């Protein structure tokens, strides 16, 4: 039909677009209900001190247990939630849940929470964070906020002020996925941040053909600027050995240590690795 004048093609694309729009609309409706229906869950992935082998921090990673689709990845959730303006409510839930969960862990272990650009740039982000600490009882030094380079792009002066105030509060700021996106080395000394997480793309092939030069360079520079350096996405012992060799990298994260795991399993893991069991009443103090 209508091939000659191209109408067939046009109709095809229009139908496909309509289907995409419809799928998106359904996703948005489902997302709105998901918060109320308690379909979201936080998994946690440890960050390990490379010298001591101890878990220093666990990063909260969002999962959506969709009644029909099964587990939906945060990569598919966060951008849609940002577009819908739902990220503030969702982010609030994530932050509070993560802080409450951290209260069940041994004192020496912190929690890391990812903030999307819109969430980070919401008007009352400081009161959001202060409130989450207050209601959970978590000391500020046990909270780490992970932001990406895209959060540093806009409204530079305001961003700088927020970061300074968070630092004054005692919360750590960690620059996530460093080396992807709009990477600029100047971010590392222009903004008050305490940690840098070097993206796992820097690890690709380093245990076989690719030289370590780039990874080492970024790690050394960050360390020289007084930042604590994390390498994410460590999957093999070879990678771990290469990264640990010169002592610049302080922490590692990746499947080699642990995949992201449910809250209950993190509690078991932490209590075992910290060589003590928590009394049961302490575990159930905050219901999850
Ligand atoms: P991210 O913050 O950089 O988190 C690391 C991602 O890499 C996680 O994927 C983790 O499962 C994965 N990963 C960890 N170790 C390895 C490894 O050794 N190999 C490989 N191949 N992958 C590894 P996940 O959980 O699917 O999250 C993806 C991204 O979604 C996160 O990247 C973060 O940007 C975003 N995200 C997740 N949870 C949240 C959240 O609560 N809020 C916001 N704003 N973003 C979130
Ligand atoms: Mg992260
Ligand atoms: Mg990361
Ligand atoms: Mg990443």
UniProtKB/TrEMBL annotation:
The EAL domain, residue ranges: 24-274
Identification of the protein by name: Diguanylate cyclase
């Amino acid at each position: 039909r209508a091939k000659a004048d191209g109408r067939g093609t046009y109709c095809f694309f229009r139908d496909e677009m309509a289907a995409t729009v419809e799928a998106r609309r359904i996703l948005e409706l489902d997302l709105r209900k998901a918060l109320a229906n308690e379909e979201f869950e936080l998994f946690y992935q440890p960050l390990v001190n490379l010298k001591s082998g101890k878990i220093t921090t666990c990063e909260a990673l969002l999962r959506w247990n969709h009644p029909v689709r099964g587990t939906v990845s945060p990569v598919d959730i966060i951008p849609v939630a940002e577009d819908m303006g739902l990220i503030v409510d969702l982010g609030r839930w994530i932050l509070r849940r993560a802080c409450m969960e951290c209260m069940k862990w041994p004192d020496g272990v912190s929690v890391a929470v990812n903030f999307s650009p819109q969430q980070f740039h919401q008007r009352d982000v400081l009161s959001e964070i202060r409130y989450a600490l207050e209601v959970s009882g978590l000391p500020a030094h046990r909270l780490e906020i992970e932001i990406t380079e895209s959060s540093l792009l806009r409204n530079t002066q305001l961003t700088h002020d927020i970061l300074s105030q968070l630092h004054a509060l005692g919360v750590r700021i960690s620059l996530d996925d460093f080396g992807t996106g709009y990477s600029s080395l100047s971010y590392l000394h222009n903004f008050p941040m305490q940690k840098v997480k070097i993206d796992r793309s820097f690890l690709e092939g380093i245990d076989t053909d690719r030289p370590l030069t780039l990874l080492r360079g970024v790690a050394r520079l960050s360390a020289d600027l007084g930042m604590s350096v994390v390498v994410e996405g460590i999957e093999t012992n070879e990678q771990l050995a290469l990264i640990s060799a010169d002592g610049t990298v302080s922490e590692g994260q990746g499947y080699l240590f642990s995949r992201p795991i449910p809250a209950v399993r993190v509690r078991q893991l932490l209590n075992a690795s910290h060589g003590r069991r928590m009394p049961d009443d302490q575990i159930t103090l905050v219901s999850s």
